[in-house]
């Protein structure tokens, strides 16, 4: 039997600075601790353009630091950037092959908010989102993609405690980010088990 090919998961929320970067970081740590992270392509994106190019919300970063979960964020001291001569890929994240190469050299890239693209629907096995509006936005976008292969689901559908919706903490406080974190841990654990 051929070696099991890799799997891919894209976590999505409204702005890609609060919930989906937390889910991405939690899942990446779980897959790393399970020794299978090299079998996965893991990323996150937004349904909106609100925060494109911005680092994860500082409240989420503080929450992840408290739990010892590495989160890729843009260094604050230095502004080191790169750009393109065309607008072909404006808003897209770096090419997955380049990211994989960087990672083999231990060079962590920094996540910046990006919007979900048509290509995401064609290349990801799973697109896992946080609430009903993310779900309806994604299904609407998927309908305009010819060969969409992604399974579009609520991340909360994997929650053993059956909390289906992971609420937007943007106008919330530290405990709301803590709740997002706990829900992501419960859901990502079951999602990884189901795909191992
Ligand atoms: N919208 C809504 C909303 C409704 C209920 C609860 C939270 C939010 C909310 C609001 C945000 N940014 C403020 C409004 C942005 N502007 C809205 C009009 C277009 C120009 C941009 C968020 C930003 C990042 C991540 C999550 C966010 N979530």
From TrEMBL:
CDD domains: LMWPTP. It is an enzyme of class 3 (hydrolase). The keyword Hydrolase applies. GO terms for cellular component: cytoplasm. The active site is at 13 (nucleophile), 19, 168 (proton donor). InterPro entries: LMW_PTPase, Ptyr_pPase, Ptyr_pPase_sf, Tyr_phospatase_low_mol_wt. Belongs to the low molecular weight phosphotyrosine protein phosphatase family. This is Low molecular weight phosphotyrosine protein phosphatase. It comes from Coregonus suidteri. The lineage of its organism: Eukaryota, Metazoa, Chordata, Craniata, Vertebrata.
